[in-house]
Records
---
Amino acid sequence: MSEIQDSLAKGERIRFTTGIHPTASLQFPIWTLVLTGSVLVLAIIMKEEPRYEGDKGASLFPYWMLTIMATIVTVIWSYARHAGTEYAITNKRVILSRGIFNTQMDEIRLAKIEGVSIRQGMFEYGCVVVSGTGGKTTELPGIPNPKKFRMILEERISALEEQVKNTEPEMARA
């Protein structure tokens, strides 16, 4: 939150924040475990029989290590992705902050948003795609309850449009 909090302009306030859903973070390690585990099972099935007495056949150690190391690496990577990603809706913009050591921030001003769409599977998370003027699109993957995120975003856009409508007559009188 500190990266987003530090990037706020004067008078800008955070209205809603969220991160990546834990299930979305575990998807990659689970697939890695399934694939490397399949290689391990295949190695067990195709294991060489001992050729002579005292021969132990081919070792399964490299396959076990492949499975364990690949799973550990993907779990660490997924945790870093989960811990280092945050989404925020403020009264002026939508902000995406990624990274732990090297932070990358992407934003779209609420006044420049033309459309918001959702891609959601059977789990409780999905991807919110925010389309802005000039063809800019920002994808916010792994959002828990993307319908709620879109609803809050559309409320903020409507509030901004209402605020602009209310200030236009005052400017015309001046």
---
Amino acid sequence: MPPADPLTLLAESKAAIKVYDHERALALCEQSVAALRAGEPCYALVNALLTQADALRLLSRYDESEAVFQELLPLAERLLGEGNALTRFVMNCWAILCKYTGRFDQGAALYQRSLALAQKAGVHDRHEMATLYHNIAGLEHARKEYAVAEPYARRSVEIRRRVSGPDSVDVTADEAALASILIGLKKYDEAEEINRRALTVFEREHGPVHYEVAVTCNNLGTILQSTGRVEEALPYYERALAIKEKLQGADHVDVGITLNNLGLLHQSQGRPEMAAPLYQRALDIFEAKLPADHPNIEVCRENLEGLAVTTSTNGNQDQMTFARPFWELWNLAMADATDENAVTLLQKFASIRQHLLEGRSGCGKSAQHWKRLRGHTVWKRVKTADDARLWLWHAHNLSEENTEPVPYSHVAAQFSWPEIVEDEARKRADRFFQA
């Protein structure tokens, strides 16, 4: 049987992307790239590499996508020229990746370079310009520069209407992107009107299970929650999550975004026990898929820490304030702790604690406290899971700004930690911090 034609493979790969079969799209594209590499570099190779980079991005394999783009753009410039339409599109697609990975300045530079080249080529009222303005607005939205993003988004809608006609689904996609920015600007009435109209169009054109439907449901949930209609918001978030998990997989970054939003909703309704696992799952996704300094990681960590609540103990004991979800999540992590992995878990939680406190008003000393402890020789002295629990409890109480220490007996009783007399627990913990 003769080998498949690389152009046929490439066409099948693009078709697979359209139906969200990204694994198959990548496999087909890799075959196409391999076949095309056997010959002289050509336009088709540039096209195939671009499809490969996009498939990797859609699978949240961002480092691999970045590596392809680093090869791809110089190749396109050499073969086709800097001003070629496909070369400009490569810049545009690389900038989209930069938005997902939080490299906003690099992405903005790529967009502006592509925009300048398009204008130089005389491209004005065309799909390319509408797409560029749409994507520039999306990047500014990602870095929360909503006022900067709005004029780009409106310009995208204006051009697309002229090019495609007001009833085009592409116009609806541009309007939905504008609505996301309007949410950030708290222009909720206009954003809701656009999103409700968009949801009708997307369901009619794409069916009930489609990425655009999921994004629009997520945004409607945000609008309803922000305007006090929380119970109405919940089914929109849940529908968005179900669609994203079906189309993109349970560990996709976009799934993490909706998980975080669901967590915010439950937290706002006083349901921290429901919010905590959603935040934790979102954080796990972000930490696995995104660069360590990505803003989504920081936001999700802050949301976890923001679950701190005031808890009253039963009986005649005094009230005490402590970060209950922090302890709950620690206890959850330690449930399967062994003597071998306890230190790793402890270091991770200490790191999270430090980064959450940094920059928070009134928490500077506490942040420094956790930073110092991360470099402390304590790690050499922690040998067991019980040691790790004692260390965490004592380290929390030693913070200079912790005016209400948590009794060991309280956390031991609440989270089924080993029962130790308070004085004995303190003596055992003290040895970790001795010079």
